[in-house]
What does this fold into?
Amino acid sequence: MKYAISTIAAGLLLAASSASAQFPNTATLTQSGIGNHSYVEQHRATSANVSITQTGNYNSVGDPAARTGGILQRDINGSDVTVTQSGDNNGLTLQQSVGDRNIVRVDQSGADNVATILQTDVFQSVENVVQQGERNMIDIRNSGSLATGSTITQRGSDNTVGVTTSVSGFSGPIVTQEGERNRTTVTQDNAFFSFASVSQQGMDNQATVNHIDTLSTTLFIVQTGNANQATANLGGSQNVSTITQAGNQNSATVNQSQYLSESTILQTGNLNTASITQTGLPAPQSATPNSAWITQTGDGHVAGIAQTGTGNSAGIQQR
It folds into this structure.
C-alpha cells in the first residue's frame, strides 16, 4: 500500500508544471433552497476551477458578507475544487495559500456537518472529504507539506476527524467512520511516505495516530464496537503496525521507534487491554525486524510486550 502511494505521489511531482504565466480563474456557483451562502476569491492562477452546488437550506461555503472562509485561494497553480452540499446547515471553510497543484473534493449531505481545510504551502495536496449524516466534523490543517493528502469518509452523527500535518510529504491518512461519536486524531510531523488507515464502526470509538520523524511506515487501525480506544505512536523507519479491536471498551497502545519494527494486536471481547513498545536499532544494521503479536479473546484480559534491539519475537495469546 505504501509503495502504491509513493508511486502516485511521485507521479504528481512529475506532472507539476513550471509555467509562470497566469491565466483567468473559473468559478461556478449553483444554489437552490433558502439562505445558502457561497464565497469564492481567487488571485493568481495557472488553471483554477471551482464548482459549488448547494441544495437545501442555510448551507454555507464561507462568509460572503465578511469575505472570509469559503475557498479563498492565493497563487493556486492548478487547483481544482468541487463542493457539493445537500441538506441543511452544512458548512465548509477552505483556504489555500501559495499552493501548486491541489485537488479538493467535498461532499456533504445531511444536517449541521462541518468541514475545515486550511493549507499553507499546499504543494500537490489532494483532499477528499465525504460526510453523510448529522453534526459530523472534519478539520484538516496542512503546513509546509509536500504531496500530502487525506481521504476521509464519515457516516452517522457527531463523528469527528482531526488531521494536522507539518513539514511532511507523500503521506496522508485514510479515515472511515460509521456510527455515532467516533473520533480520530492524526498528527504528522516530519513524516514522509508514512501511511495510516483508520476504520471505526460503532459508537464512541477513539483512535489517535502520531507520526513523528517517520520514513516509510505503515499503520492500520480497525475498531468495531463501542468505546474502544487505539493509540499508535510511530517514529523511525520502515515500521509496520496493526491494531484490530472488536467488542466494547477495549484499549490498545503501540509505541514504535528507531528502525524496522512490526506489531499486531487483535482483541475480541470486552474490557481487554494490550500494549506493545518496540525500540529497534538506530540504523538498518540488520534485516531482521522486531516482531510482536497479542491476541486476546474474551473479557478483561491484560497483556504487554516490550522489545529493544533487533531480531526479537514475541507472543501472548489469551482466550
Remarks:
- Residues 2-318 form one domain.
- The two ends are 32 Å apart (CA to CA).
- The CA atoms of residues 191 and 214 lie 5 Å apart.
- DSSP finds one helix and 26 strands in the chain.
